[in-house]
Amino acid sequence: MAVCEAGPDCSIVCQTGCICVQDPDTGECLCDCSEDEPGGLAERKWGRFSFSDSSQINVVASDFPIGKFAEVLGFIRGEDAKPVPKVSGIATVTLKMTGATFGDVVDELVRLSD
Question: Which of the chain's ends, N or C, has fewer CB atoms near its CB within 10 Å?
Answer without folding.
Answer: C
